[in-house]
């Protein structure tokens, strides 16, 4: 018995549709595997970028640590190279080498002493502690800054030590007496050292090498 032509065509289309339906999961699987491979490659690239970033952070940390070690080395070297830092030879500044002033009238305990003797930063701080039971001065307002600038004008040097230590490129100040850094008076050129100097001419601050020998101001 012969089938009509249109029934034969309908049968062929049905068979073709069933064949495509059976192949669909296989095609989907191939596409999914291709997408997964791309995702894995992208993940590998991101992981590589993450490793590079961590290496960069670690490198920066090592550089900062090296800088801190250098600071400690400079301070230690300054202490060892200056006779005033050694217990058996240590002497407080002579009275004629110092100038003392009182702070503002409302602050009975604010006393400042300018020491004209040149010392490296670490020895200057040691002198303030041992001789005057104080610290290198910290400055927290413009009035005190101007007062100390006038006081420091009695020496022939352009800079005197004050009690600030700077460890990072952003010039964050840490006062040796532990007080907060709530006032700044930077010069146009901030310098590149790690210890803070006060200009005897304009009262501005600049970073100086800690091994430099300068007069200094104690507060007690």
From TrEMBL:
PANTHER family xref list: PROTEIN CBG13490 (PTHR22991)
Keywords: Disulfide bond, Signal
Annotated spans, Disordered: 30-69
Domain C-type lectin: 112-219
Top-rank taxon: Eukaryota
One protein family per Pfam: Lectin_C
Protein name: Proteoglycan 2, pro eosinophil major basic protein
Span of the signal peptide: 1-17
Keyword Membrane in record: no
A single BP term in Gene Ontology: immune response
Taxonomic lineage from the root: Eukaryota, Metazoa, Chordata, Craniata, Vertebrata
PROSITE patterns in the cross-refs: C_TYPE_LECTIN_1 (PS00615), C_TYPE_LECTIN_2 (PS50041)
InterPro entries: C-type_lectin-like (IPR001304), C-type_lectin-like/link_sf (IPR016186), C-type_lectin_CS (IPR018378), CTDL_fold (IPR016187), Eosinophil_major_basic (IPR002352), Snaclec (IPR050976)
């Amino acid at each position: 018995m012969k089938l009509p032509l249109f029934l034969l065509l309908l049968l062929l289309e049905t068979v073709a549709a069933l064949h495509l339906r059976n192949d669909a999961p296989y095609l989907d699987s191939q596409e999914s595997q291709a997408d997964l491979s791309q995702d894995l490659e992208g993940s590998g690239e991101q992981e590589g970028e993450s490793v590079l970033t961590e290496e960069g952070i670690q490198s920066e940390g090592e550089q900062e640590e090296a800088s801190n070690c250098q600071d400690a080395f400079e301070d230690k070297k300054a202490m060892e190279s200056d006779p005033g830092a050694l217990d058996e030879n240590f002497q407080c500044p002579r009275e004629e080498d110092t100038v003392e002033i009182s702070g503002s009238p409302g602050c009975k305990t604010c006393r400042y002493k300018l020491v004209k003797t040149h010392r490296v930063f670490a020895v200057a701080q040691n002198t303030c502690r041992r001789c005057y039971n104080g610290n290198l001065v910290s400055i927290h307002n413009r009035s005190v800054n101007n007062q100390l600038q006038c006081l420091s004008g009695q020496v022939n040097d352009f800079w005197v030590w004050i009690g600030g230590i700077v460890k990072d490129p952003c010039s964050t100040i840490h006062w040796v007496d532990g007080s907060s850094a709530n006032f700044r008076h930077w010069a146009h050129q901030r310098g590149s050292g790690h210890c803070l100097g006060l200009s005897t001419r304009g009262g501005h601050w600049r970073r100086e090498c800690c091994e430099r020998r300068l007069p200094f101001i104690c507060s007690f």
